[in-house]
Design a protein that fits this description.
Helices cover 62% and strands 0% of the residues. With 149 residues, it is mainly alpha-helical. The chain has a domain of 92 residues: Four Helix Bundle (Hemerythrin (Met), subunit A) (Up-down Bundle).
Length: 149
């Protein structure tokens, strides 16, 4: 049985908006308390998931396996290397998630760091850690492509 209502926010007894409700809101409601609560909840869920994945990786890597066959050992080492690269990307994402939560607290969330204009709800739904509007991000990528890092 599924429900059409979003879960309750831990800070309040009000239910959180759904994505459809969020997208249907007028531009004048941009980054109001309800929208901020929605993104705060989404970012905290992502943060918990990333921390849980890191804990699982730590436990997995602690399991020592003695494998006499060199080919099997190489396969296991390659799997561990891949898992560590994945966790490294997730560690960087976790930092961005925590920065986004700080931006919510400071009132800067949802606003482009370069232009000060709204990032936009659809972009934040796709990438909740975005700090640039789509146009500003495209300009930055073009500069990087033309001039390098």
């Amino acid at each position: 049985m599924t429900s059409n209502t979003a879960p309750l926010s831990p800070e309040t007894t009000e239910r959180l908006l759904t994505e459809a409700e969020l997208l249907a809101m007028p531009e004048s409601d941009y980054m109001n308390e309800a929208q901020l609560a929605f993104f705060r909840n989404r970012l905290r869920e992502l943060e918990q998931s990333l921390v849980q994945n890191a804990d699982q990786t730590t436990e997995h890597l602690r399991e020592t396996q003695f494998v006499p066959d060199p080919a099997d050992r190489a396969t296991i080492e390659e799997e561990h290397a891949l898992e560590l690269r994945t966790r490294d990307r997730e560690r960087k994402l976790l930092k961005k998630v925590q920065q986004s939560l700080s931006r919510i607290d400071s009132g800067d969330y949802g606003w482009c760091e370069e232009t000060g204009e709204p990032i936009g709800v659809p972009r934040l739904l796709a990438r909740p850690t975005a700090t640039l509007s789509l146009e500003a991000q495209q300009r930055r990528e073009m500069r990087q492509k033309l001039y390098g890092d």
